[in-house]
Amino acid sequence: MRIQVTGEALTDEINVTTGQQTRIVEVSAGLVSSVNGETGDITGLAREDDVPVLAGEAASAAVAEHVAAVDPHGDRAAAADDATAKVAAHVAAADPHGDRAYADSLVQVGVTDWINVRKAPYSATGDGTADDTAAIQAAINAAVATGSVVYIPAGTYRLTAALTLSADNIRIQGAGPGATVLEQSSTTANGITGTDRIRISLSDLTLSGPGTGTGTGLKLGLAAAEATPYVRLDNVTVATWGLDGIDIDTPIVSTFTSVIPVSNGRHGFNIHSTGSSTSCAFVACYANNNGQAGYNLLRLFYSNLSGCAADSNGCGYLLTNCSAVTLTGCGAEATVAKNGQDGTAYKIVSSEGVSLSGCSVSNNATTAIWLATAGAAHLIHGCIEQSTAGTPTAFVRVDPGVSATLMSHAHTTPNVLQGTVTQIGQGGGQLTVPGYLYVDSSIETSSNMLASGDLVALTAGRGLNIAEGTNARMGTATLAAGTRVVTTTAVTDGSRIFLTCQTPAGTPGWLRVSARTAGTSFTITSSSTTDTSTVAWLIVQPA
């Protein structure tokens, strides 16, 4: 296109060197003078694709309309359609970012080899139908040789026999409980088993049993070794096994985090030893609806359970022959008697130094906390009975031969205390101490102090100090003409009032209480009417 301007000092041209040739518009003295060399009425001459253009005004209007248009070229509508299509395709894609494909193709993370059971030469299917036992076992055996991690991607892997851990330092990693499921179809086989193993780790998977039979989800036993050290279970669900969810003989220095044994025929956790399991930590675990105990802990020493839960089991937490085990912030709900268990939420049998701190019981139907058979040095602190079901028999039950300290509980069901029990802050802030209470300094109390034994000061110079003053139980009075009325509300009809001459004066005589008005006063009288002595008095109340 060329615009030719005439009648000016200079002629300006704009030449279009490519594209289709257009009409020439000549402008003279600021006015359109011709189009393609023709003059006169140019309305019909200035057309482009049959659209009439009124020179000047039409062009200005077209430009304004173009600028004001929301989408003059249709680019936005096209882009929106394209974006909508891409979003829909992204959502529908099985692996839009390629993460799954990357995870499935993992061979190495850092310096640790990962063996993917879905890849050749193992080629497990994870479809819930094919038997994947041999494929996964081959991957475990290969990991034993190379020190690799066995990676089991999301899927349901059908098993017909137990997977055997034939060496130490084996780590099995899934894609998450519920995502990676090892499903045992045999009613007599375990899920994963090993003997005399060290450093076994399972993470992010589910071990699913057939719902009946004699199998256990994870069973780590002993034959020649003394213990099963360094077990680590993290984010693992163990469900519907005929026997136990988890059975480990003598774990030491082991951790169980977010482990969920659910609906197993006997125990959720079965941690046992003929010697002692030590230094074990259970964190945020949840034993639910197991046939007997949610946590069956036999001979577990210096270990702890923190923030754990036990619901709908025959016994929530069963500790037998344990020592120095602490349960902090744990809970038990709807514990119900079944399969030989009596429905106790926390049952501590023949143990010592077991502490429950800030633990909770809901729907207590029998006994919330039972210190049974024998044991010593238990501490039950800040525990709460949230609710009851039916007619429970006790909140805390302490058998004969058991010693314990109870501190600051909230409950509606009464305690049944037959052992040696020190109570602090029970029923309005009392301190109840069986036997001796040894105090190196002073005891101050604003209420009653009850003792079933003697109050003994073992150090010379120590004794009983009693405040004097208005309405006191001890004081002095000076006689006038051999008599004096002492005003005090502490006197009762049964009060024992002891008198002694503190400072003789006048003609001292023998002293007696000649009258009393309960809650008001008593009268001291001397046998001498000229007795002006100062008399010390002490009121003792019979228990």
What does this structure look like?
The chain is mainly beta. The protein contains four helices and 46 strands. The protein has a 30-stranded mixed sheet that branches. The longest helix is centred in the N-terminal third of the chain and has 18 residues, at 75-92. The radius of gyration is 46 Å and the shape is elongated. The model is unreliable at 1-23, 41-55 and 106-111 (pLDDT under 50).
Protein traits:
disordered N terminus; K1-lyase_C; 5-stranded parallel sheet; Pectin_lyas_fold; 4 helices; mainly beta; 543 residues; 30-stranded mixed sheet
Helix/strand layout:
Elements: E1 3-6, E2 25-28, E3 31-35, E4 47-48, E5 51-52, H1 57-68, H2 75-92, H3 99-104, E6 108-109, E7 112-116, E8 127-131, H4 133-146, E9 149-152, E10 155-159, E11 163-165, E12 170-174, E13 180-184, E14 192-195, E15 200-208, E16 218-221, E17 228-229, E18 232-239, E19 246-249, E20 251-257, E21 260-262, E22 269-272, E23 277-283, E24 286-288, E25 293-298, E26 300-306, E27 309-311, E28 315-320, E29 323-328, E30 331-333, E31 346-352, E32 355-357, E33 360-362, E34 367-381, E35 384-385, E36 394-398, E37 402-407, E38 416-417, E39 420-426, E40 430-432, E41 474-478, E42 483-487, E43 496-503, E44 511-517, E45 521-526, E46 534-540
Parallel strand pairs: 1-2, 7-9, 8-10, 9-12, 10-13, 11-14, 12-15, 13-15, 14-16, 15-18, 16-19, 17-20, 18-20, 18-21, 19-22, 20-23, 22-25, 23-26, 24-27, 25-28, 26-29, 27-30, 28-31, 29-32, 30-33, 31-34, 32-34, 33-35, 34-36, 34-37, 36-38, 37-39
Antiparallel strand pairs: 2-3, 4-5, 6-7, 39-40, 41-46, 42-45, 43-46, 44-45
